[in-house]
Amino acid sequence: MIQRPRGTRDFGPEEMEIRRFFEDMMRQEAVLHGFREVSTPIFEHTELFTLKSGPGVVEEIYAFQDKGGREICLRPELTASVVRFFLNDLTTFPRPLKMFYFGQCFRYERPQAGRYREFFQFGSEIIGNPTPETDAEVIGLAAAIVERTGLRDYRIRIGHIGILRELLSRTGVEGDEALPILQKLDKKMYTEAEDLMTQAGIAPEVMTEIVETTKITGPISVLDSFEGPARDYIKEVCDILLAMGFSNVSVDLGVVRGLAYYTGMVFEVDAPKLGAEKQICGGGSYSLAELFGGEKVFSTGFAIGFDRTLLALQTEGAALPQERLTAFVVPVNDMMRGHAFKLVSELRRAGISADIDLMRRNVGKNLKFAAAVKAKYAIIVGEKELESASVTLRDLSSGEQSLVSMVDIVAKLK
Amino acid sequence: MIQRPRGTRDFGPEEMEIRRFFEDMMRQEAVLHGFREVSTPIFEHTELFTLKSGPGVVEEIYAFQDKGGREICLRPELTASVVRFFLNDLTTFPRPLKMFYFGQCFRYERPQAGRYREFFQFGSEIIGNPTPETDAEVIGLAAAIVERTGLRDYRIRIGHIGILRELLSRTGVEGDEALPILQKLDKKMYTEAEDLMTQAGIAPEVMTEIVETTKITGPISVLDSFEGPARDYIKEVCDILLAMGFSNVSVDLGVVRGLAYYTGMVFEVDAPKLGAEKQICGGGSYSLAELFGGEKVFSTGFAIGFDRTLLALQTEGAALPQERLTAFVVPVNDMMRGHAFKLVSELRRAGISADIDLMRRNVGKNLKFAAAVKAKYAIIVGEKELESASVTLRDLSSGEQSLVSMVDIVAKLK
Known about the structure:
2 copies of one chain form a homodimer. By secondary structure, chain A is α+β, with helices and mostly antiparallel strands. Chain A has helices at 13-32, 47-53, 79-90, 132-149, 161-170, 175-186, 190-199, 204-214, 229-243, 306-315, 337-349, 363-372, 383-387, 409-413; strands spanning 36-37, 43-45, 63-65, 71-74, 97-106, 118-128, 155-160, 217-218, 249-252, 262-270, 279-286, 298-305, 327-331, 354-356, 377-381, 390-395, 401-405. The radius of gyration of chain A is 28 Å and the shape is elongated. In chain A, helix 1 runs antiparallel to helix 4 (132-149). In chain A, helix 11 links the parallel strand 13 (327-331) and strand 14. Chains A and B meet through helix 1, strand 1, strand 2, helix 2 and helix 3 of A and helix 1, strand 1, strand 2, helix 2 and helix 3 of B.
């Protein structure tokens, strides 16, 4: 039998109801914040991602040649696509441009627990000005979305890539030379980071200061011992978040996000209950457009791992939505079939979810089926009842039955 | 500058609001009809589609090898995937299984007006029993969806592949021999069909009868001259549709849908205003599961071309939804920034869409921006007004301004 491709998933009705519920919730929250949805293709020119993340990224993505010989790939993330879309078509829009997206992304790696080859991301980007307000607005949307899902145990940790860059720059290490060091620090690979710093000629005591800095976490006051524009900036971001009522925010200078295009503020949201793979959201301010051949623009964005967020909610035992069919219509015999179809159609037109026997089963089997698909009511269309323009309404939880006039049935079920 | 891949589209905010509106509408209608959503991966093993449509299909799809040497492809449609999902995981679910889906599909062909390499389909499948009720239920959902979109000019044409098969079978032409003839008749390529029928030894007068049969269209009464199970079946389907209140239904024996797995009823929905590419929906009853190595099950389904349906609505000048931001909050100076962020957050928490100055612009520029993004109101947060716990509310259509107390602002904007 043909199977689904390795590392992918099918989603059945129960899962899809949950997934659409949270997808809609995230979308609604973004719209409340003045963000608007955009959508880009599932596949892109591979170059888009090699320009962003280096040629090595090809190893980790679904890259292939199309029949025209073009190098294309399934998108591994959406920020690059949104920035490309901006450059192609949206540069004349009033700024700031506040956009969000939801969709599939793909990575080619060994499938493992909780990591799929096809996965889903919800994210947002603001293209505008480098202000703390912009960064706070982006973090605020991420926080509002996580809050609205009902997740109880989560942490927002904010850092600033500029603080470590300032420390490194004082030793003369800047730009491309600083990047591999930052990448190791991001991954908490201290020995490797120290080796690189030694090679770069950084003195041991400065090295210690740099490593210790990445371990600084806590309330905003942990920044008091620092000076400089990065510290002032991050403090402003936090003040705005406090004004917006988000108190679950801490500083973590170990959030580095080791990619060259991050320019300043960086942040992550964790759900500690998820253990080692606890990050559910990551973002920061970045500068990508000029890599793609466009103007240099300031952007801030984030992506939420949709699958991992749902996993975190399940781990907390959150109450997940379940949709239920309102009415299942059962004709008692073939003669009643036309009447039953007329009724089911009237219910649907009135906005009541309704289903009907399609299998020509008897009443007993139909009632069993209605219970199996968790319908709330069965409506039995019988000859005698129809003479008085009535049907039998049966509550499938309590088993109670009553005769209800056809003219009242919609009101009764609404 | 990097461009989107050829034949694909990006969708900006206005387009996405329209698309999500109709996507949600279709989803809601399906749920009202007791269908439940399923979702399958963007890519599948290529074999799934060569088994369904023959090896030639590889020429028309995005097929490639993944790094593990597997033949995979971007799905060209979703019925095969849904049937595969059913066989993999859903065979123990109570039947009939009523499923719907919405998602991207892909084809590799020369891009042309209205035909994209990435396109969107909404569709449904019922896996159950071969009853006219099942077929009517599927057509009924398609009709209800098209009706609900507001499309005025559309036609549902129902045929039955069995009527032509019966005529051919009387001449001894059956199964694989009949298929190429049916395919030519489906495409109205009468000369080619006649050549094939001549080769198969069919007498000229029977040939004429067969060709004339494919031209029979009109109300259900056009079937009166026929006999046999196919004719009785299609009449029952139409009677149920009438009971459900769908009167925009006609018989068209030229609807053949020339693929081997169609077994009986076939139907199409046209929007005549679209001209040559007028079909917006197609479906029928089919038997696919056994081709994929599973049990033989009876299924009926349809797919709606989402893009073409939207095009048809546009062609009719239908009123398309437009979302508008309710409030844009403007602090008069830097001191008011914190208060403004507090207010914008309160509005959002109350379910009012609200945005705020992120660019540190002056009041005049902010009011211009608020008008440019079509906000309904601007809320100006000023020092003097704040002393009396008030803000200035400005209606951006009329230009009217009033002083509103902070405690009343949510109720005022709800």
